[in-house]
Amino acid sequence: MRNYHKEGGEVEETMYIAVSMDMKQNKYLLTWALENSRGKQLCAIHVHPLYKKSITLDPDPDPDPLYYHPLADMLSSSSAQRRKSEEVLLSAVLDDFLHNSQRSAVDIEKLYVKASTIEEGIIELIEQHRIANLVMGTTAGKFYSRKTIKSKKAVYVRDNAPPFCHIWFICKGRLVHTREAINPLTSSPGKNVPSDQLSCWSTDASDDLSSSLPTTQSSSNFMMGNKSETSLLDCDLTEADNSRSVEFGESLRCQIAENKAEKAERLYAEELRLRKSKEEELAKERGELKTMQDLWKQISNELSMTAAQKRALVDQLEDAKLSLKKSEDRLLSAMESIEKYKIEHDEMHVKMNNALEEAQNLRKQLSERSSSSSNISPFLSVFSMSDLEEATNCFDPHLKIGEGGYGNIYKGFLRHTEVAIKKLHHNSTQGPREFLQEVEVLSKLRHPNLVTLVGACPESWALVYEYLPGGNLEDRLTCKDNAHPLPWQTRIRIATELCSALIFLHSSQLGCIIHGDLKPSNVLLDENCVCKLSDFGISRVASINKASTDQTTLVFTNELKGSIMYIDPEYLATGELTRKSDVYSFGVILLRLLTGKSAFRIAREVVSAISKGALDSILDPSAGDWPFVQAEQLAHMALRCCDMSRKNRPDLGSDVWRILAPMKSSCQGLSILRLVPDNQIPSYFICPIIQEIMVDPHIASDGFSYEAEAIRGWLDSGHDTSPMTNVTLANHILTPNRALRSAIQEWLQLNQSV
């Protein structure tokens, strides 16, 4: 047997492969060892069990891969041929393994030993030869993890192998478990092996494997002791082998007899089962035959009945033919009656149309008389002409506070409330239509920055509004009647509130409402300079133009109205009134808030100043010291709104509001108490939802401040839109407005001290 230890006691790097009787498993082990040997010498080891039958007559339904081989079914079961059969089987296995290794051009050593069990033989080889690297086959179920081995022999070797041995367990060519070496082997040669249990062969092709299996020779490197001890051991082993052979033969004969008895019992049971099955089939066929006889009798009876029914049906057919002839005669008579009734129906239809036309004319006349009162919303108050005359002292000229294309505006005192009354001109042709349009819009909309319509008087085509003592934006920008100029903070707030009102109109539930006549004179101010948009006489409810690629809201009109300085150029050219028409007018108002100049060519002047880097020179000095960054932002945004092309103008909700809302929040707390008269509550302090002074103001994502409890209640009730703009909120995050809260507390302290 070849020595596996180098001179000086150093252990040679050798990988041992535990060869089983399963050729397929051996191929898996050899393939894995060749791929992972990393230059190590390979050695095949095999353990032949002494006390266990190597091959049984009946194939094991779940053979162990280390023991079972398909050739076992073909071997003789006689005791005399057992040894020879095992030797032939082992020779075939080892020849197959060597053949696979020679095809891989690898020289593999072989080591063979006999032991009581395979697992004990492997442990014995590991201890005797100091095996440090061992590759061993195992089995693993479908639901076993990679680190779990199923074979009892593999488990035994894993648990009982010396700690210096590193073992790889392979299943179907895959590594399923590794037992790491605890104390790696560095030296110490292996122990001796008895010569009758151990054999070793070279992989040379000239070696005869079948003659090598029963040999008792061994290498001098693995044999120690004297010859007398060896002879005694051989005798003992021979006696034990003979005794086992006799026992094996007896056991084999008993097993054959038992198998024959079991087979006879199975054949008898099968014969009984077949006999019972045949008897059941015969009984079933007899039952079916009886059923067929009964069925034949039933069918015969039914045929007799069918023949009788056929005769009855022939008689009924003759009767039906007679009835059909009578029905045809009646049908001809009915058709003549239908023609007669049709002529009468046409005459009645003509009379009905004449009556409907007459009724429609009468209804039209009646509606013309009562159209004024029928178009008034039930939510508005209806006033008589005498009520208005009493409120205005018969429309006293001294109470006249304004004049427009629709008519004159008077200040009045109606039902203990100051109101503004707009009365139609006597010679106005569009007054009734504008009256109904404004009632239709303002009666159904509510917004903090839309003027409130109190009621109407159909007799005189007059409208009654809330009274706003601050006048209009046009008068404040021109400082009419020595009015105080508006600070830049107030102008930014007015722009933000006006933008909020327009967004609300453009996204109204009634449809996209386009104001169409947006200008400073239609922007009214209350005592706190809060803006209120008014004059909806020429407003339009737009529809969606589905043919347009950008889904623009359109209204086509041939009646061009409004101030020429604020009218959309494309509206003048095409007659198409859109949301972007209001954006253009809003841009002109922004430029006027910045500069305080006239609307005539104001956009050109601002563009020229910006191009020269002299924006400060054109800003309105009466507004105070404008913050340059905010002024520049407003100027650029206003010029975008005033773009000649409608497509280039920004959207109020998504573009303009994102710039104005932060501006309003940043300057909301600056000198807020100096912007309002004494003892008057600033509008910023009032919550738009509950209309009370805020205690804990919070800023929502729409840029407006609300009482914290009120806005949370609004959101918790299922609303996801802004209470001010009716636009969907970007989020529900609320930010405390500490600047506004400080201003409210300061104002309350000042008024309490007064």
Automatic annotation (TrEMBL):
The UniProt entry, under Pfam families, shows: PK_Tyr_Ser-Thr, U-box
Look up the record and name the pathway of this protein. Answer: Protein modification; protein ubiquitination
Q: Which residues form the U-box domain?
A: 680-754
Q: Which domain of life is it from?
A: Eukaryota
Chain coiled-coil ranges:
254-372
Q: What class of enzyme is it?
A: transferase
PROSITE patterns in the cross-refs: PROTEIN_KINASE_ATP, PROTEIN_KINASE_DOM, PROTEIN_KINASE_ST, U_BOX
Q: Which reaction does it catalyse?
A: S-ubiquitinyl-[E2 ubiquitin-conjugating enzyme]-L-cysteine + [acceptor protein]-L-lysine = [E2 ubiquitin-conjugating enzyme]-L-cysteine + N(6)-ubiquitinyl-[acceptor protein]-L-lysine
Q: Where does ATP bind?
A: 423
* Record Gene3D superfamilies: HUPs (3.40.50.620), Phosphorylase Kinase, domain 1 (3.30.200.20), Transferase(Phosphotransferase) domain 1 (1.10.510.10), Zinc/RING finger domain, C3HC4 (zinc finger) (3.30.40.10)
- Any GO molecular function: ATP binding
> Do you know which CDD domains this protein is assigned to?
RING-Ubox_WDSUB1-like (cd16655)
Q: What is its EC number?
A: 2.3.2.27
Q: Which SMART domains match?
A: S_TKc (SM00220), Ubox (SM00504)
All copies of the Protein kinase domain together span 395-661
For this UniProt record, the keywords arranged alphabetically read as follows:
ATP-binding, Coiled coil, Kinase, Nucleotide-binding, Serine/threonine-protein kinase, Transferase, Ubl conjugation pathway
- Gene Ontology biological process terms in this record: protein ubiquitination
State the protein's purpose.
Functions as an E3 ubiquitin ligase.
Q: What is this protein called?
A: RING-type E3 ubiquitin transferase
Q: Which organism is it from?
A: Saponaria officinalis (Common soapwort)
